[in-house]
Q: What sequence folds into this?
């Protein structure tokens, strides 16, 4: 478990890399796919340098994101990363009792607790971690769930999530990895990449009563450093979030990235990238099973959740691999590890390291 000097809710993949020199460990802990944005997107970001003397204008980004998701502009709020959505909800939604479905990304619960909001954890049982709406307290006026979920990779059916919505309740869905689900991949291969229709389990829709969705550009586009995310949802809820947001919290480069990555060409590129990730994930899963590890959870994310012997994380670190500990996720323990999908050569090297670490 996490040591007494740590807040386990604030532990993230980059913490696994430590303070050593860059490249000292092969990084399987961080879920950001690219070390840097693609060249065309880097050019867009560089092109904003001449605009940095002016305050950011979120209008074009709101319109581009609304068009990308086929919703009204009033349903969209650009944010400083998807994580800012959680802070804004904690500050401005008037929540009295929150239910957070775990295992999942821990920042929503951390933000709620920091705001003094009581949180009840709803722990989904493994190995499939399927969501049962009946497990959620009926009197919770905020329910938070990831889809697909980090770290389990489970993609919950949209109908199951909608069953959690009710009058007087806010349903907040973290869809940071939604653009990596296999449905997007298959449509990209057939050159039919669209927006919402390629994400059938997304709750983004023209009408979203009581629903908020948090999205991020970080994972697909390698933009962790500029904090680019957004919320889509019920216009009344979006207005509440906007009232809590500091002026100009989203930078000009981040806003430009939102516009650029909402284009049909960018969506097609994302689809091709995810097609590649799907193949690479299958290769990784094969090698992990050959090494004797148990694959748990779902398959709808660019990472894999495994269960192995206690101490495997440290043994892999000694072999030069950083992997994400999962005992910091409520509902999991030190046997669980999350591994980011990388190129087949990296997975092959990992398999060899696992053989040594496990004494094969």
A:
């Amino acid at each position: 478990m996490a040591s007494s000097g740590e807040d386990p809710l604030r532990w993230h993949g980059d913490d696994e890399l430590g303070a050593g020199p860059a490249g000292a460990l092969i990084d399987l802990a961080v879920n950001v796919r690219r070390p840097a944005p693609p060249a065309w997107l880097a050019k867009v970001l560089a092109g904003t340098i001449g605009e940095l003397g002016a305050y950011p204008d979120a209008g074009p980004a709101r319109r581009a994101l609304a068009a990308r998701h086929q919703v009204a502009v009033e349903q969209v709020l650009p944010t400083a990363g998807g994580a800012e959505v959680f802070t804004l909800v904690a500050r401005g939604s008037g929540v009295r009792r929150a239910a957070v479905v775990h295992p999942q990304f821990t920042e929503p619960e951390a933000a709620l607790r920091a705001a003094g909001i009581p949180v009840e954890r709803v722990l989904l049982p493994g190995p499939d971690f399927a969501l049962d709406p009946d497990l959620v307290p009926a009197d919770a006026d905020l329910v938070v769930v990831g889809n697909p979920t980090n770290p389990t990779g489970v993609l919950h059916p949209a109908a199951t999530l909608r069953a959690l919505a009710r009058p007087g309740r806010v349903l907040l869905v973290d869809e940071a990895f939604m653009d990596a689900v296999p449905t997007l991949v298959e449509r990209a291969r057939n050159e039919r990449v669209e927006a919402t229709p390629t994400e059938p389990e997304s709750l983004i829709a023209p009408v979203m009563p009581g629903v908020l969705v948090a999205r991020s550009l970080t994972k697909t586009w390698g933009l962790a450093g500029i904090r680019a995310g957004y919320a889509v949802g019920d216009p009344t809820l979006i207005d509440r979030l906007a009232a809590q947001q500091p002026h100009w919290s989203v930078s000009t480069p981040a806003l430009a990235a939102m516009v650029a990555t909402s284009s049909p060409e960018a969506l097609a590129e994302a689809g091709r990238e995810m097609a590649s990730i799907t193949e690479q994930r299958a290769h990784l899963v094969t090698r992990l099973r050959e090494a004797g590890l148990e694959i748990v959870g779902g398959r709808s994310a660019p990472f894999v959740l495994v269960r192995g012997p206690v101490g495997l994380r440290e043994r892999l670190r000694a072999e030069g691999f950083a992997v994400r500990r999962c005992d910091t996720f409520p509902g999991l323990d030190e046997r669980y590890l999350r591994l980011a999908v990388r190129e087949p050569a990296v997975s092959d090297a990992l398999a060899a390291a696992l053989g040594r670490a496990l004494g094969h």
